[in-house]
Amino acid sequence: MSKQKDLKDFEEEIRQCVKCGACQAHCPVFGENKKESVVARGKVALAHALLEQEVELDERMVSDMSQCLLCGSCFDKCPNLVPTDEIVMAARREITEKKGLTSFAKAMTAVLKRPALMDALAKGGSVFSKLLFKAVPEQSGLRLRFPAPYIAPDRTLPEVAAKPFRDRHPEFIQGEEGQPTVAFFTGCMVNYMYPEIGEALLKILRFMGVSVLIPQGQGCCGLPALSAGDAATVEALAKHNLKAFSGGEPDAIVTACASCNIGMGKHFGTLGDRQAEIAGKVQDILAFLVSQGLPEKLAALPRPAEVRRVTYHDPCHLRTQGITKEPRALLKALPGVEFVEMEGADRCCGLGGTFSVYHYGTSKKIGARKAPGIETSGADLVASACPGCMMQLQDTIAHAKLPQQVIHVLELVAGALPE
Ligand code: SF4
Ligand code: SF4
User: Domains of the chain (ranges plus CATH)?
Assistant: First the structure.
């Protein structure tokens, strides 16, 4: 039996929706297609009708429930704190139970469940990348040369790393005596696509004297499976990660990906007492670094002659946890950085995990709404704290033909430190 909540477990929360409509103006999906059934109020009403067996679980219901980024923007503005994202995830589990997974979700979760298969595919992808991809002119990122299932032909993708991050490092890196020990949950995107973020994290932790555990047996955080409504895969991955993170007694488990942070820190913690204990140690790396006094250390570094203008995009999975000040504190303390806010920094980038696969047209339109803020900020670089957002922002920038590059806050911090 699944340990995850059924739609029935949300009966009380569903009833708390007073249909005030305060969520409407903040739902990125509603902003594009103006359909009442996709805004939080509409989805909660659909979930209620489903519970009361007043509607069929038909194609329309499946499509409406799939049109959610799980961004939490509605929850932020809801006077009754109705957890629409959780309700949608429970509805998707119910859909999967009754109708099975979509072909994309089947293919995706089959790979996620098998880290060895993911490793093999990533290595194959890296070897054949020259054949499969072309560089997008004057932009960082790649586009497919040939049509491929589930990937839109105009979607910009990062390159697959020649060697995954976890294959490059030992399981334990000793720091200085008296300093904390952290375990690093790398997540799939850092491991296979953005290993430079992991390298930056290690350089910063070395500078801080922090010891680092990198459990080799770790797997995906489970968020893509959660978003697809695949309860069994979420639980298999939780079991896998429980084993990987049970040793070593670190002071914290750090993530460099906002989505992994919410997967390992929030959802994983609902699956059992031991999982809750481990989830209680999960911290976003930027919040951890601020708690360790890194901004003060950065402010004391020598100032370089060259100054770059940097803006910041809030990933939804950090914003909804209130982690908005820490990335800015680090950026503002960096020598050689002039921090500028962009308009709509807290607006969702439009990725939403599987949402951008099923609804790339809408995902692209939501992303496009970030472009004017990026352009008028006058920034050279757009920093963020989530590899998924980085991929989507780079895609948005490529479509808008803007000159900015997207970078993780950690890469900027590491670049300012002495070698
Ligand atoms: S803001 Fe909350 S209570 Fe109001 S309609 Fe939206 S979900 Fe319902
Ligand atoms: S979670 Fe985001 S996309 Fe989903 S209903 Fe709420 S605001 Fe809309």
Answer: 7-99 (1.10.1060.10), 165-290 (3.40.50), 299-416 (3.40.50)
